[in-house]
């Protein structure tokens, strides 16, 4: 098993909370992680029909059978169980009594906010990060391989064929996750929508364009994008504005949470096709944004993450805000350093009028400290963040 960086934080939280929740997309490694952190716990999988029926029909007896130190897998399948968990954990007062795994749908359930608020510590598990792969004997991994394969653990553990695995993944997602989360009548059209969305990774969300291209209403586009978020397949990155209200109403950028899945949906069948693919720049940018998201989540670091764009056309791909300090970055897939790497970023820094560090993250391997900012190889993102 590849060691997960978030594991010590989960283990520590189990000493303070009666319930731990590990959320994330299908096949991100939630069950494997939970079992590795808590090897002596009992295990109940609510994906299994007989176990799910047991929990649904007699939750009190179910919790009597699994009275303490239990991993309950796919717990969102039986949301009625949460109110019983509240009563039981309040009575027993045992730290780390239950570990629940499931999809992001957890966060949408009113039973979580009503029943388990203050009793559950929630953790989000993304697919493997480059940092995790590097620390587990994948030091020679190249950027194109990382983009093409993505980070789903099973692809590294068993060296499976990418296309076959992702075909199965999408089919399972459509048949199980989508049917659980929403009543979509035309699954074929929804699958077409996912493939269309893959081509928009790294771009602003354009509801009108998506609506016209797929032949559905604006409200359906919004609902389907929300469904992909809940499933853990995409992230919406908000724009940065000094006015907090504006951040919530302006158009976000959409990123797939795994570039391997995005490549498959785009019909990229091998690594050799990447370099000449018209969306290579967007896939590279998606990979870098994903690495930032994974870093902050895995290390439980609470930095606010945005992108910057104004009406004059000035743009920065990433803006991190930590107190009064700003980290401003531009992402370029080229392997060579541009002649004037910080021109746009310097103009944005002037507008922000705050202590700001400038960074160009690119596809090459050389790192440089320049007068105005840092040239950062994709391989050294973590080192760059640690120094910040």
What does this protein look like?
- The structure is a single chain.
- By secondary structure, the protein is of the alpha/beta class.
- 44% of the residues lie in helices and 18% in strands.
- The chain contains 18 helices and 14 strands.
- It is globular, with a radius of gyration of 22 Å.
- It starts with 6 loop residues before the first helix and ends with a helix.
- The mean pLDDT is 91.
Could you give a quick summary of the protein structure above?
The chain is of the alpha/beta class and 388 residues long. 44% of the residues lie in helices and 18% in strands. The strands form three sheets. It has a six-stranded mixed beta sheet with strand order 9-10-11-12-14-13, sandwiched between helices. A five-stranded parallel beta sheet has the order 2-3-4-1-5, with helices on one face.
Taking all residues together, what is the mean pLDDT? 91
The residue ranges in which pLDDT falls below 50 over 5 or more consecutive positions are none
Specify Rg, calculated over alpha carbons. Answer: 22 Å
**What structural class do the secondary elements suggest?**
alpha/beta
Question: Taking strands numbered 1, 2, ... along the chain, how are they ordered across the largest sheet?
Answer: 9-10-11-12-14-13
Strand content: 15-25%
Estimate percent helicity: 40-55%
Based on DSSP secondary structure assignment, what is the total number of beta strands? Answer: 14
Shape: globular
Number of helices: 18
Q: Main β-sheet: number of strands, strand sense, barrel status?
A: 6 strands, mixed
Q: How many separate structural domains?
A: 3
End-to-end CA span: 30 Å
């Amino acid at each position: 098993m590849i060691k997960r960086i978030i594991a010590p934080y989960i283990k520590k939280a189990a000493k303070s909370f009666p319930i731990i929740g590990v959320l994330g997309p299908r096949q991100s490694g939630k069950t494997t992680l939970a079992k590795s952190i808590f090897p002596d716990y009992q295990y109940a999988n609510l994906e299994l029909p007989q176990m799910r029926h047991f929990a649904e029909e007699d939750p009190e007896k179910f919790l009597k059978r699994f009275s303490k130190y239990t991993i309950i897998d796919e717990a969102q399948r039986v949301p009625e169980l949460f109110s019983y968990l509240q009563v039981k954990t309040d009575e027993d007062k045992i730290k780390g009594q239950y570990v629940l795994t499931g999809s992001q749908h957890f966060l949408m359930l009113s039973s979580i906010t009503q029943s388990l608020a203050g009793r559950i510590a929630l953790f989000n598990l993304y697919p493997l990060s480059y940092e995790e792969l590097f620390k587990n004997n994948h030091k020679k991994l190249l950027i194109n391989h990382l983009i093409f394969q993505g980070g789903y653990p099973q692809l590294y553990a068993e060296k499976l064929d990418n296309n076959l695995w992702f075909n199965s993944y999408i089919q399972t997602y459509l048949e199980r996750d989508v049917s659980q989360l929403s009543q979509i009548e035309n699954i074929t059209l929804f699958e077409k929508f996912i493939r269309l969305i893959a081509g928009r990774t790294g771009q602003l969300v354009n509801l009108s364009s998506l609506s016209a291209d797929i032949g559905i209403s604006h409200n359906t586009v919004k609902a389907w994008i929300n469904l992909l978020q809940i499933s853990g397949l995409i992230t919406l990155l908000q724009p940065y504005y000094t006015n907090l209200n504006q951040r919530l109403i302006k158009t976000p950028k959409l990123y797939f949470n795994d570039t391997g899945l995005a490549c498959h949906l785009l019909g990229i069948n091998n690594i050799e096709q990447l370099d000449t693919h018209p969306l290579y720049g967007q896939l590279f940018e998606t990979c870098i944004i994903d690495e930032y998201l994974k870093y902050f989540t895995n290390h439980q670091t609470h930095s606010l993450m945005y992108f910057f764009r104004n009406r004059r056309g000035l743009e920065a791909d990433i803006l991190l805000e930590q107190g009064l300090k700003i980290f401003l970055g531009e992402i370029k897939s080229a392997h060579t350093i541009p002649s004037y790497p910080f021109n746009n970023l310097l103009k944005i820094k002037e507008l922000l009028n705050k202590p700001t560090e400038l960074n160009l993250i690119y596809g090459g391997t050389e790192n440089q400290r320049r007068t105005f900012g840092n040239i950062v190889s994709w391989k050294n993102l973590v080192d760059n963040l640690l120094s910040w």
